[in-house]
Design a protein that fits this description.
Strand order of the largest sheet: 1-2-3-5-4
Structural class: alpha+beta
Strand content: 15-25%
Helix content: 25-40%
Shape: globular
Largest sheet: 5 strands, mixed
Low-confidence stretches: 1-8
Order of helices and strands: HHHHHEHEEHEEHHEEEEE
Length: 351
């Protein structure tokens, strides 16, 4: 099952979707390695309610944090452990490493956004380049892929983030959007600019590369012009396909439970996304960067909890905005034994 970002995962098909479903079923019955159980415990996830996204967003990042910041054998040893106490000790170490990774990621993303803002201010037009190249000398090699992915999601265009390897070499991690094969882009950049890229490899949505530290600007120009030549500008709009609106009667825990049980969802088998107009009854920040909302479907007094992760803090919270058009997924919020419907907002615009 997927243990990473969307760019890194294997697509679900008829066969492996059955394997994932059966695996999750066994794990919900408690049939799992002590290391997996320990990782779920430190992540605050209930094994009895396990879904595929718990592995992708709770277990996976903690395992990956070891390889990103220290030694990947820490995660391997946790998975191989046959003793519950040893597994829990290892999981706690991985949890701390993941917290450190998140702090590094937040700092790097803040720097990246500042660079993009400066770029926009320098441009005579407000539109960003077709592709973004980001580099800071103190960036961590193990986290540049995550940062590239975050920026790609926010600005809907291919991104390469670089980190320093030595005084003469920098390493990059690329993330792309549907319709732009990033390895093919790098191949064309390398062909048309001999010697610019010293090595590269990857696939449609993610790639890695190395260049000389002195040639960042050369790469920036070549990367942007190549992407511009290879894709249709409409791909940069960041369109999100919706399965349509739900009726007032369909905003229920039972419907959300049916959607969850229809999984597992994943790459090439996406979870349903709906869209509606909502009135905002309340809004506040949680965790300093996520927006918690109380919403009512337009024309209804019924209230529903919703959350939007990693909002633009220059735009939200906004108490002047009382209505939004939101694309969302149905989610189940479990807290202190209580379970209820929650909307997971993917995109929203002020109405």
């Amino acid at each position: 099952v997927a243990l990473g970002t969307v760019a890194d995962v294997v697509a679900l098909d008829q066969t492996n979707r059955i394997l994932v479903a059966k695996g999750l079923q066994r794990m919900r019955q408690g049939k799992m390695r002590p290391g997996i159980a320990a990782l779920l415990k430190v992540a605050g996830r209930q094994a009895s309610q396990l879904v595929a996204s718990d592995l992708g967003f709770a277990v996976g990042p903690r395992l990956n944090a070891a390889g990103r910041l220290e030694d990947m054998s820490l995660g391997i040893n946790c998975l191989l452990s046959t003793n519950e106490n040893d597994a829990l000790k290892a999981a706690k170490v991985l949890d701390e490493l993941n917290k450190e990774r998140r702090a590094i990621e937040d700092d790097m993303k803040t720097q990246a956004l500042a660079s993009i803002k400066q770029l926009q201010e320098r441009l005579s037009h407000s539109r960003l380049p077709y592709a973004l190249t980001l580099y800071e000398q103190d960036w961590h090699q193990g986290v540049i892929g995550i940062v590239a992915g975050r920026i790609k999601e926010q600005f809907h265009r291919p991104v390469v983030a670089f980190a320093k390897v030595s005084d003469t070499e920098i390493k990059g991690s690329a993330r792309s959007i549907p319709g732009c094969h990033i390895r093919d882009v790098l191949d064309r950049v390398a062909t048309e600019n001999p010697g610019l890229i010293t090595k590269f490899g990857g696939h449609a949505m993610a790639a890695g590369l190395s260049i000389e530290a002195s040639r960042v600007e050369d790469f920036r120009r070549a990367f942007d012009s190549t992407v511009k030549a290879m894709i249709d500008e409409s791909l940069l709009a960041g369109e999100l396909l919706s399965d349509g609106p739900l009726t007032q009667e369909e905003f229920t825990y039972d419907i959300a439970k049916l959607v969850r049980e229809a999984g597992p969802w994943g790459q090439a088998f996406p979870e349903p996304v709906f869209d509606n107009i909502f009135m905002i009854r309340d809004q506040r920040l949680v965790g300093e960067k996520h927006l918690k909302l109380i919403l009512s479907p337009e024309g209804s007094q019924k209230t529903i909890e919703a959350i939007c992760f990693f909002v633009d803090l220059s735009e939200w919270p906004d108490n002047r905005t009382r209505k939004i058009h939101a694309a969302y997924q149905l989610d189940i919020n479990e807290f202190r034994g209580n379970v209820k419907l929650q909307l997971l907002i993917r995109q929203m615009e002020k109405v």
